[in-house]
Amino acid sequence: MSSSIVQRNIVAFVVGVLFAVGLAIAGMTQPQKVIGFLDLQHWDPSLLFVMMGAVGFHAVAYRLVRRRSSPLLDTEFHVPERNDVTVELIGGAAIFGMGWGLAGFCPGPAIVAIASGEPRAYVFVGAMILGMLVFKEYSPHLSGAKRPRK
Questions:
Q1: Residue 5's pLDDT is what?
Q2: How far apart, in whole angstroms, are the C-alpha atoms of residue 77 and residue 116?
């Protein structure tokens, strides 16, 4: 294994741990906190500050990073080229929002919450994986598009 692959894996691991700790500290791994943020009748605005901090940091960091000719540990940036709004995008966002509102989890925090032993996190991640497998199997048939199989 080359040293650049090892470096990328180490950096990915450290960034993942840092992200997980941030999610846990912010309370995003606690479904009741997330549902409290989404409940307009008993609104808990604390996650709004977490989101504002994340979006603000990203807005500044993205501009600084994109000034470089390439990332530090890769030869090119891997940025989506499409920016059109599709039925699949709207449908996926709606499903994501409904799942987040019903379960109080979104994918990243749910994976982090598994470490707490929370049974709902296991159920959510299991359902998420099942949904991904079903999508991978049936999405070419639903959209009519030809997708390459890997």
A1: 86
A2: 35
